[in-house]
Amino acid sequence: MRILRNYILKECVIPFALSLGVLSCVFLLGYTVKLTHLVINKGVALAAVGKIFLLLIPLLLTYTLPFACLIAVIMAFSRLSADNEIIAIRASGIRLKALSMPLWVAGIILSLLTFHLNDTVIPRAHYEMKKLQGRLGLQNPDALLEPGVFITDFPGQTIFIHRIEGNTFYNITIWQPQNNGPTRTIVAKRGEFTQVPERRELILKLIDGTSDESDLQHPDTFYKLNFQTLFVTLDLSALQQEGAKKPKSMTIHELVAEIHRLEPLLKVDDIYPLETELYRRVTWSFAPLVFILIGFPLAVITNRREKSANIVIAIFCAAVYYLLSLGAQGLSMEGQLAAKYILWIPNLTGFLAILILNRKLCVS
Asked: CA torsion 292→297→298→300, rounded to 10°?
C-alpha cells in the first residue's frame, strides 16, 4: 500500500507543479504589460516595479493553487483510468476508498497551507503593495492616472480617462459622491494635469465639459452646468496614510477585532465587507481539499486520456465553484444574507457533488 500511495502522489506532483507554474505565468502576464508600461512610459524605477511583481505572486496563489490541484488530480487519474491501472488496482482487492486516502491527506495539508496564505501571507503582501503604490504615487503622481480603468486612489472621487498623451488626457469622467444628495458627475472632452509637490496635490484642468451642480433651493437635486475650464484638485496626502488597513490587508485576527469594535456602534454597512472578507478566506481555504476530492471520482468516471478534455473539465468545475462564491459574496456584501452561512454554499455544493460522484463510482 505504501508503494501504491507513493506512486499516486508521484503521478500528481508533476502535473501540479506544471499547472501551478503555467497558471501563475498566465495571470502574471496581464500585469507584466501594465508594469512594463509604468517603467517605459511613466518613468517608474525598475526596482519598485520588480517588487510589485514579486508581491503579486502570493496574491494569485489563492486562485492558482486550488485550480492546480484540480488539474493535477484529473490529469493523473484520467491517465491511470485510461491505461486500465484503476481496474488492475481494484482487481487486486484494493478499494477505491483506500486509494483516495493519500488525496485526503494531501488536500488537508494544502488547505492548511492555503489558510496560512489567506490569514498572513496574502494580507501582508496586499498591505505592502498598497504602501509601495502610495509611495510611487507621491513620487510620480501621473503613474496613478491610467487610461481605460476606474481610478479610486483619490478619496471622495472615482476617475475614468479614455486616453492620455503626455500631460494631456481626453474624455474624462469624474464621479464625486455627496453626503446629502445624488453623486456629482463631471464630464470633460479633454484636460491637463499639473503636480504641486509642496502641497501634495495634483491639479486637473478640465476643458469643455459639463458638471452636475447641487441646487441650493433643493439640495437633493442637481442642475447641469456647462464650463469651458474647470479645476479639480486631487489630494495626494492620503497616499501617505500607511497605518489604515482595508479588509484585504487585515489578518483574520484583525478582521475579527474590527468586527467586534464596530458591532456596538451598529455600523452594519461597515461590518458587511469585513464579515464577507473573513468568511471568504476561511471557506476558500477548503478549496484545495474540495477540488482534489472532486477531481478523483470525476477523472475515473470520465476515463479520458486527452489533456485538453481534462483541462476543460477542470475549468468548468472551477468556474462553477468561483461563480457560486462570487454570487455569495455579492449577497453578503449587500447584507441580504449572513456571510457565515451564505459563503459556505460553494463548499457544501462541492461536497455534495463529491458524494454523488463517489456513489456513482462505487456502483460502476
From this structure: 120
Residue appearing with cell numbers 483574520: 252
Cβ neighbour number for residue 325 with a 10 Å cutoff: 20
Q: Structural domain of residue 72, as residue ranges? A: 2-138+251-363
Q: Residue 318 domain-assigned?
A: yes
Helices (H), the chain: 2-41, 46-82, 85-91, 96-99, 101-116, 122-139, 252-262, 268-284, 287-302, 307-333, 339-342, 345-363
The three three-digit cell numbers of residue 205, written as one number: 484642468
- Rounded to whole angstroms, the Cα distance separating 248 from 174 reads 25
Clarify whether residues 258 and 129 are in a common domain.
yes
Asked whether residue 170 falls in the same domain as residue 310, the answer is: no
At 45-70, the pLDDT tens digits run 777 778 888 888 888 888 899 999 99
Q: Are 314 and 292 in contact (CB under 8 A)?
A: no
pTM score, two decimals?
0.76
Q: Contact, 31 vs 56, CB < 8 A?
A: yes
The answer to whether position 329 is within a domain reads yes
Place of cell 459563503: 343
Cα separation, 14 vs 302, in Å, equals 21
The predicted-structure confidence for 109-145, as pLDDT tens digits, reads as follows 999 999 999 999 999 998 888 777 767 766 666 666 7
Task: Tell me which amino acid residue 58 is.
Answer: P
Domain total of the chain: 2
- Do 227 and 342 fall within a single domain? no
> Same domain for 12 and 36?
yes
Same domain, 8 and 126: yes
Tell me phi and psi for residue 347, to 5 degrees.
Answer: -70, -40
